[in-house]
Amino acid sequence: MIYLFTRDIEHWAAHPLALKDKMGKSSISMFSREGAYLGKWGPSDERGFALGAHTLYIEKDGMFWTTDRDGHTVKKYHPNGELLLTLGTFAKWGDDATHFNGPTAVVVQHNGNIVVADGYWNSRLVWFSPSGDFIKSVGTWGRGPGEFNTPHALAQDSKGRLLVADLCGGNFHDYMTLPGQIAPHRTKVTPGCKHRVQRFDADGNYIDEWTHITPLSIATYGNRIYASDKMSNLAILDEDTGAVISRVDDIAIYIHQLAMDAHGDLYTASVYPEHAGAPRGPTGPSHRRWSRDTIPSQGQSA
Prior knowledge:
By secondary structure, the protein is an all-beta fold. The chain has one helix and 22 strands.
């Protein structure tokens, strides 16, 4: 089964009025592996399920985690649709133990702890216990080691290390925020900032960074790291060294999210083309699946 967590463009919470009135609507659609549409999942077609879909994370036991960027919440659901846990406060932003400001991603660690990338208008990783109790916050705004500009994507490798796709730039989507939501220093490009992958151990201690790719999204499978690079390309990296093992160029216009399934197949979600400087228009599929058998081996490029 394939699940897509998407925004309803007609009611997207990208507009302040939608945020204020909680009119945003996001849903999870189900598809077969062959691409046949199978309907909406669980409660996801109900108003208030999510204001602005950003990522969907599914655990090995089938539990669903939704990251609602514009609703400022991360939610855990049973596969039957029952809401089990909510992190953050719905439609209320902040920078403390009970509030996010544009969360972007979530992972469940090997010990059961939950880590949230609070990344669009905050710059931190936040740890919670399996029951949702706040543990700690790591990181602040900046370009130094362990600091973040925009932690846009989060993944966990086979050894439990955390990988953060940290973007540079200012004024990230300020048109979808309300007065006072973005700190003034975040509306300008950070001097000397570089797009990078930052690595941390399971406790949030900084390890190192990789600056030879410009990641927007990141995923893992086995001992490999899959990261978008320069918006439209895919880089496959060794999880220990970060060395590029192979590349696939021009696989999408703007790779906003990546995901891997249990078969080792890769899924790309591409957003609207003006992000990459192209005019909006019918430019091909928004979602694609790449079989691991079609991804080039070492030294090849597609």
